[in-house]
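Question (not urgent): is this output format expected?
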Amino acid sequence: MKQPDRHTPNTGEVWSQFGNDLRAFILKRVRNPDDAEDVLQDVFVRIHRGLPGLTDSSRLLPWVYRITRNAVTDLHRKRNTPSSLDHEPADEESIDSQAHRQVGRCLRQLLSDLPDKDREALEQVEINDVPQTEYAQQAGLSASGAKSRVQRARRRLKQELLSCCEFQLDRFGKPTDGDTPPHCRKNCGCMDDPT
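Got this back:
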């Protein structure tokens, strides 16, 4: 059985291998060439910083594209413009709907109620976009231990959300205002916050 390649490429090698493809990928989602170049530069800064934490070079391609998708999304958030990475056409109403705001408030509340280790794992990996390998080092865990913790925390947060809140989902699995407004099943009050 062939052993996986343990060589971790440097930033220059990643640029040579993926630079043109990433530029095209970004241009399809950003449209403005100047913005696309800014995003590409940001992507390679993130890659340069994260490469030392990449322990499995066979995961390089998905890792690079995850960074790229996140950078494109960050640009759209910063500019408050819809991203073509969304699964459905986004307009102002769907981005800022009452259902999305309420579920977001509920998720923040439920996240704060998780055990410290689970909350920290989700905040670092999902909110702060820290690669799991880097989070593993920060938390003193193995890579597989960090991955397990994040997956467990995701499941726990999903279970809490589904047991606490009732809301309609659209065909993409996203909350929708629909005919029935979102509400708390357990009277946890997470959707009562007016902010």
